[in-house]
Amino acid sequence: MPLKIQPRVPRGMRDILPQQMLLRQYVIGEVEKVFQRFGFEPLQTPVLELRETLMGKYGPDAEKLIYDAQHREGKEELSLRYDVTVPLTRVVAMYPELVKPFKRYQIAPVFRAERPQKGRYREFYQCDADIVGSKSMLADAEIVTMIYTVFKQLGFKSFVTKINNRKILTAIGERTGVPPESLGALYRSIDKMDKIGQEGVVDELTKALTDERLGNKRLSLAEAKKTAEQTVSFTRLYDGGWPELLRSHPLAQQGFDELDQMRKFLDDTGVPVSYIEIDLSMVRGLAYYTGPIFETVVTEPKIGSLSGGGRYDELMGLFSNQSLPMTGTSFGIERIIDVMDELTMYPASIGKTVTQALVTVFNRDLIGASVRVANALRAAGINTELALDADGLGKQLKYAAAKSIPYAIIIGPDEAAAQKATLRDLSSGEQTVVAESEIAEAIKLKAQS
RNA sequence: GUGGCCAUAGCUCAAUGGCAGAGCGUCUGACUGUGGAUCAGAAGGUUGCGGGUUCGACACCCGUUGGCCACCCCA
Question: Among A42, A68, A310, A405, which has the highest number of CB atoms less than 10 A from its own CB?
Fold first, then answer.
């Protein structure tokens, strides 16, 4: 007797059982409908990409999390995709004939070897929508409008999309004179503003700027503190305007101008201002963003961002001589689902099973009658299960109840003789005898009320 | 990647270093034309895995794997 193997799944990955799957399909379906309503088209790419396609795009921290997917005798170096944005860029570079602007969506699993936690898995679905080939801030505004529409559609009430611009962040770095090798630390610190507050950021940034490990350009304590304070003051929103010292920086000027344009377009597309927040302390981690960046968070359960995205005009340049402006967003379906689970936001119409009716089998002689009824119901578009074993009727009804199947159909000798069937409503226990030809109609009628 | 808490039946959890248990669930029957209730019975375990301490380990120690939480980062 060989030793049994422990049934389990890899770390950070999970099975999704039918009941959970139905909720998932609902959420994904709603997101997809909104994507299509905004004119995005579906795209599929391989789960594996050549390693060289992925490397050098996300930044060193992120790239440590990329899975290798080598076959023992394979000659190509392969990796599991880390997101679906870089593969899109690869596609756009490979098929220059695609009509621009190219708008595509992709809903697919991606893989990151992080330490798992609530709302963080090693395999998770991203729902991406991107616009390729438009420099207009209207494209970014469309993306943000779509984000708003998706969350509204799913029934979210308290969420906000934060908007910032990479150009402003870069300008802050230059204006404050933070050495380039410390820019990462600078961004990481100010990104925590809403968590640890302005003073927290000053402290942390001061510490980072005086850290010896950052090399020869490290600042003295006094310099560092001054730089940190200036940085924080730059990210603060003054009523009506931005700090003049920052504003005069050419890159910041561009960034502010882009923000203004977006704001105007968002006003035109009708996104209420309460759902938008300009936040100069919001940073997105991925290295490829160059312009506007956005991130959507909910306030109630603490779970991190539910969607993130931005403009990445330079990424295509890594694959092709021709460069193309791109912008887009990514929804994290598992986090959206985790939040919706926690707040029980699903419409009651989503059942626990796809089956609408169970046709019971009374005994071996009456199997034929039951099969005929099941066929008729299926032909009429009703999801129908046929009892497969002629067990006792009690057992069959118990099965229907356990699976939350709403209706059971009973065809015993009496019904069979009269070409009828008993239709039982499992939730109320109510029973009616209906002519065989009218069962489908009767179920449809009941299901509506 | 760093730190903390945890791991016993399908699930939730008990068991002073001394016989591994309960509730729920599952299965069978009471019930050969009707589910959720009740009653009776049954099945179900290498106490995550590997070492160590001990006369004796579910318990204590070390390691390992996995889960949760915080940090880091992110969807």
Answer: A310
